[in-house]
Amino acid sequence: MKLENVLAALPEQEVTIDVLQEKYAKGDEQTVHDVRRRVARALASIEAPAQREHWEAEFLWAMENGFIPAGRINSAAGTEIQATLINCFVQPIGDAVWGHDENGTPGIYAALQEAAETMRRGGGVGYDFSSIRPKGALVRGTHSRASGPVSYMRVFDKSCETLESAGSRRGAQMGVLRVDHPDVEEFVHAKRDGSLSNFNMSVAVSDAFMQAVQDDADFELVHEVRPFDGEDDAQPRADGKFVYRTIRARELWDQIMRSTYDHAEPGVIFIDRVNRDNNLSYCETIEASNPCGEQFLPPYGCCDLGSLNLVRFVSDPFGQAPSFDFERFDRAVSIAIRALDNVLDLTLWPLPAQDREAKAKRRVGLGFTGLGNALTMLKLRYDSQAGRDFASTIACRMRDTAYETSVALAGERGAFPLFDAEQYLAEPHAASRLPEPLKARIRKEGIRNSHLMSIAPTGTISIAFGGNSSGGIEPAFSWTYTRRKRMPDGSRREYEVEDFAYRLFRHMGGNVAALPDYFVSAMQISALDHMRMSAAVQPCVDSAISKTVNVAEDYPYDEFKTLYQEAWKAGLKGITTYRPNAVIGSVLSVSSAPTPQQPQDLTEDPDRRLRLDKLPRPALSSLRWPSRPRLAAGNMAWSYMFEPLDHRVSFCIFIGQTEETIERLDGSRAVRSLPFETWVNGNEQPRGLGAIAKALSMDMRSNDRSWLKLKLDALAKTRDEQPLQLPFPPEGEVRWSPGVVAAFAEIVRHRCEELGTFDALDAQPTPMLDALMFRKEPKSGPLGTLSWTADISNAATGDDFVLGVKELQLPDGTRRPYSIWLSGDYPKVLDGLCKLLSLDMHVVDVSWVGLKLRKLRSFGELNGSFWAPVPGESRQQVYPSTVAYIAELILHRYKVLGLLDDEGRAIGGAGALALPESDVAPAAPTEVPVMAGQACPSCGAHAYIRKDGCMFCTACGHQGECG
Fold first, then answer.
1. 825 and 738 in one domain?
2. What is the mean pLDDT of residues 748-754?
3. Has 659 been annotated as catalytic?
4. Are residue 891 and residue 796 in the same domain, yes or no?
5. Is 951 inside any structural domain?
6. DSSP-assigned states of every residue in 306-363
7. Under the GO molecular function aspect, what terms does this record hold (predicted)?
8. Is the pTM higher than 0.90?
9. Are residues 119 and 210 in the same domain?
10. Which of 290, 449, 468, 581 is flagged as catalytic?
């Protein structure tokens, strides 16, 4: 089955249209075809007049068949925007404050000015700061001590912060320092104070250093400039460098690894490998990379990028014999190389030096995207040897076709000016690994472009132009997630985003509730298998590969260090990892020491103390499903008639269940039933009991069974205005109960016990209990506690009462609600709801109670709607019930305290690490891994992580600028 025929019937996702319009469409452009047509016409304008129409059609064909030029090309080519079409540059910095240093390299402030112009025109910039003299080095002119490269990096950081690049693209920077620079330790730890946020950072590691680590040897930190304290007697080494100090290599390596493990930076560049593999090592030295790390470049070098979307070349996806269309692939590669060569002559260059450098070497970087999806469509696991073999085949086929095209272009347009055949093809350069017939052609005919391959992060271009196919070389990160979009009126709406392969599989009739084993996502793949994929592809890539190895929070540190050493041994040019953790995500850390305004612990009860033994994972990560799962085939539900002897009320309790397959220790599998929701039905049900059932259903969907038991225990103690007698299951035994809520809890508990929910609790994980600030509510003591109250009056139901919210002040100064109560005329059933929500408030992750309150905000009851003041505004609106208004008021209080936003989503700190939640959840759990990260520029959640070489928010789906 041809993919084109399938795609013709597959409508575009809303996210692809949104991102296209937000990032790339210009003027009247509405569709992806409109953008491609503009770009094709612009690229063809470089061709001879008689050939322009032909090449415009060819470029358009290539783009319609999988070629995706980089983001800057798609956004600016063919427009009147005075911006560069080049994504990123590397620019030099010399050891001088003003002007140029003795080698003619721009000094610090001259380099800063050049960087500002480059970023203003839309380019990101990478720098090597190693030439800047170390802190404490001699400054002869003033006989003073130097402040060191990190101090000047802060100047560059602030400059970037104030600049907004063309097209509203915030500037991106990469800072590199050699591992033998005397200030390398300061560099490694420089971002711990929250500064340098506009930099990615990498250490340029030499082979000599890695060998010293292997041998547990000492390592010298050196620089060309004499130390201040050694002005008279210090002698340079044979290479002219002064030794500032000697350090044990493993000690320095451990500092780098610890920082990367805890803070996701710095990255590691194996700089000697980069230079050995460089086709142009005979005429340039590479010291830095562009901000996303897939292009190692000389001073003023640029990355002129494009990608082939591999999913577009798969025939008969998921079929009996899926295959790859190499013939069409070769044609697309060849056209893409010509297009990228044209970009070098079409673009605006921010600096003349960049223009000269590009024209002398004509570097381009063609890579691929959608590898993870393509492997899935071919029914190959990403982490299998077969998957790696296929990726290697694709990379080498792309390389050979690209080099053949560049040879042909040399015959038409001339070789790049610095071409020297013998030096270019010399070992161990990347070009030396080409097939012999192709090397013979290069010797005879020359080659147009010095470098041709680069696998970049593709970010938003994979969404806008690839139907949300997996990015770059990466596997799919998640099969679905929920994206939150801000509307013109300031409101937000949510919609589901699906991975391309997942969506195609479902469209073709596949069962997404039971995905085949070749559907494997990033967090299901071992770190070493991530690295092995890079190693399989790297020999065929003459530049570099941008890949982020995402590892789990509990990934062992020793294995983490080994991963980097294995990458060096495997011949990689660099490696970047991301491990979510509390340090990155600023998860709230509380201590047991009370402040005067905190409730005092008078009972010495450890369950009442304000303390966390360890920083918990975000609470919402314990949910199997953020909302009720779609169950297309239906599900079983157990029911029980609630009929007390006094006939006070009569209604039916339902408990829905689903099934999951578990694997026993002996390897066998079994099916068990899980309760995942409860509800009540009947006109005589007490007001508010439906809200309790709704809130309790979310607790049922948690993977913490002890948490559900805690909730049921609390409800079982809830007293009504008078007790009641009720026949209880399973035999109809009549027993007294404190009230309707308590009896309801006992019936729900009975069914859960029948299903084995509470079996072997001691051996089960307790992520929710671990996330509690305290198990029991703290006692306030004689000094009292903080409290916030609000009046609620619902004339439709006769409710007239006060809502009270008890608050405490945490050691970090944060005010937190921790309990709610009601006083006045209200349905006493709501006391049970207060118990549930108070326990939810004890969870350190405020996103948990935020999600509960958002669900209750829409809770309605028959004839219970009423007009009420909107919290914080001078207007009124209709609320669907008293319960809904209680939820609205509590949400508002969390907002006033700076804990939740308008939508009830966490703001920073604790609770900012929530899974996205939608009103209708998919059949299988949403697979966006919960990861601590930086504050997202779109939603503010501390869930902005490095994914596929780009930044991505796991809370709202915001995609960072790259590609």
1. no
2. 95
3. no
4. yes
5. no
6. EEEEGGGGEESTTSSS-EE-HHHHHHHHHHHHHHHHHHHHHSPPSSHHHHHHHHHH--
7. ATP binding; cobalamin binding; ribonucleoside-diphosphate reductase activity, thioredoxin disulfide as acceptor
8. no
9. yes
10. 290
Dist CA 938 CA 270 (whole Å)? 34
What is the rounded distance in angstroms from the CA atom of residue 95 to the CA atom of residue 103? 9
Domain containing residue 402: 3-83+304-507
How confident is residue 935, by pLDDT bands cut at 50, 70 and 90? low
Q: Tell me: the pLDDT tens digits for 234-269?
A: 788 999 999 999 999 999 999 999 999 988 889 999
For the segment 471-499, the average pLDDT, to the nearest whole number, is 80
Residues 6+ apart with CB under 8 A from 779: 599, 600, 601, 602, 603, 608
More confident residue, 277 or 634: 277
Contact predicate 858/785, CB 8 Å: no
CB 130 within 8 A of CB 93: no
How confident is the model over 151-186, as pLDDT tens digits? Answer: 999 999 888 877 754 444 456 899 999 999 999 999
Whether 936 is in a domain gets the answer no
Single out the residue in 260, 289, 318 at which a domain terminates: 289
Instruction: Say whether 294 is catalytic.
Output: yes
Q: Which of 849, 846, 860, 890 is nearest to 872 (CA)?
A: 890
- Inter-residue contact 688 to 750 (CB < 8 Å): no
What's the angle, vertex CA 481, arms to CA 480 and CA 487, rounded to 5? 135
Domain boundary among 885, 911, 937: 911
- How far is 496 from 534, CA to CA, in rounded Å? 31
User: Distance (Å, rounded) from C-alpha 938 to C-alpha 958?
Assistant: 6
CB-based contact 655:676 (threshold 8 Å): no
| Same domain as 345, residue 211 | no
Model pLDDT for residues 506-548, shown as the tens digit of each residue: 999 999 888 999 999 988 899 999 999 999 999 999 999 999 8
643/687 same-domain check: yes
- Read off the pLDDT of each residue in 344-358 and give the average, rounded to a whole number: 96
Rounded CA separation 370/466 (Å): 8
Please check whether residues 56 and 158 belong to one and the same domain: no
Integer Cα distance of 643 and 728 in angstroms = 10
In terms of domains, do 367 and 348 share one?
yes
Helix (H, G, I), strand (E, B) or coil at 75: helix
Q: Which tokens is 605 given? A: 């009860």
Identify whether 290 is a catalytic site residue: yes
CATH code of the domain in which 148 resides? 3.20.70.20
pLDDT of res. 926: 42
Q: Which helix (H) or strand (E) holds 222?
A: strand 218-223
945 lies in a domain? no
Question: Which run of H or of E encompasses 160?
Answer: helix 149-162
List, in sequence order, every beta strand (DSSP E) within 112-172. 124-128, 138-139, 144-145, 164-165, 169-170
Does residue 740 sit in the same domain as residue 844?
Answer: no
Is the Cβ–Cβ distance between 871 and 889 less than 8 Å? yes
218: nearest Cα among 179, 255, 251: 251
Residue 811 lies in a domain: yes
R_g over Cα of the chain: 31
Query: Number of folded domains in the chain?
Result: 4
Three-state SS for 766?
coil
Q: To the nearest whole percent, how much of the chain has pLDDT over 90?
A: 64
Catalytic residue among 88, 292, 540, 752: 292
Return the pLDDT at 593: 38
Q: Residue 952: left if φ>0, alpha if ψ -120 to 50, beta else—which one? A: beta
- Strands (E) across 614-719 are located at 636-642, 651-663, 669-681
Report which of 891, 943, 937 is spatially closest to residue 912, judged by C-alpha positions: 943
Q: CA of 881: how far to CAs of 817, 861, 867, 884, 952, in Å? A: 23, 6, 10, 5, 38
Tally: H helices and E strands in the chain: 29, 36
Who's near 756: CB < 8 A, 6+ residues apart?
672, 673
Query: Once rounded to an integer, what is the mean pLDDT over residues 280-287?
Result: 97
